[in-house]
Specification:
- The structure is a single chain.
- This protein is an alpha/beta fold.
- Helices cover 27% and strands 24% of the residues.
- The protein has one domain (3-227): Rossmann fold (3-Layer(aba) Sandwich).
- The chain has six helices and seven strands; from the N terminus they run H-H-H-E-E-H-E-E-H-E-E-H-E.
- Strands 3-2-1-4-5-7-6 form a seven-stranded mixed β-sheet.
């Protein structure tokens, strides 16, 4: 990660909350527009299925008939693969703009919302996922509480998050491995930490599956938690 990126992230932390949010959202949109241009005008989402299944040692049947919620979903169509689910909802503060960006051709449902206050009832979903997004939110503690609130007892909470990286414009929180302790209504079924590549590519890093060299190095935390009754 460049020195300029680190400095920008540090300066962003000092900006008023409204300005921070606008800058972060515009940076996110700029990133996805660039991805869309490089891909020739079509987003690819084929990698998501293995992130939900292989990475967490879950079969496709595990998701059959379940209500699924993906937080910080982005525009790619993270739940397009899960046509066996009863419902598949993606939440993002930029959901409306992402639907416009992807052409509105996807089968999953997009809902515009921050993760800190979700527009769903208690225990509304059997699976709640958040991939590469928890360090992007406005309030980590509130987001963790909401993730657990909307998850049904016995349901799965699937988490992929970068840890121990300096703050950036789009990732203003430096999280650590002990983050899992804050999920006080869940049991940790499995957790692993992987090294992150120099190019900061989360999904290619997961494919490489290299162990982190030492504690405190930037890395990726993957965890499956289960909501207690």
């Amino acid at each position: 990660m460049s020195l300029a990126t680190n400095i920008a992230g540090g300066l962003l932390a000092l900006a008023p909350a409204g300005l921070r949010t606008r800058l972060k959202e515009e940076a996110e949109l700029h990133y996805w527009r660039r991805v869309l241009r490089k891909s020739g005008g079509t987003f690819y989402n084929g990698h998501f299925r293995s992130r939900f299944t292989d990475l967490f040692d879950l079969s496709m049947d595990h998701f059959a008939g379940k209500r699924m919620l993906d937080l910080g979903c982005g525009p790619l169509g993270s739940l397009e693969w899960a046509d066996m689910a009863a419902d598949r909802v993606g939440v993002d503060p930029l959901a409306d703009r992402y639907v416009a960006l992807n052409g509105g051709t996807q089968a999953m449902r997009y809902v515009r919302s921050g993760c800190e206050t979700l527009p769903f009832g208690h225990a509304a979903f059997h699976v709640v996922s958040m991939f590469n997004a928890l360090d992007h939110v406005e309030d980590v503690e509130a987001s963790v509480a909401e993730m657990q609130r909307v998850l049904a007892p016995g349901g799965d909470l699937l988490l992929i998050v970068e840890i121990d990286h300096p703050a950036t414009v789009t990732e203003p929180h430096r999280l650590r491995e002990d983050l899992l302790r804050t999920f006080n209504r869940c049991l940790v079924r499995d957790s692993r930490v992987f090294a992150i590549r120099d190019d900061h590519d989360v999904y290619r890093s997961l494919r490489d599956a290299r162990p982190r060299r030492r504690a405190g190095d930037p890395a990726i935390l993957c965890a499956r938690l289960q909501r207690q009754a």
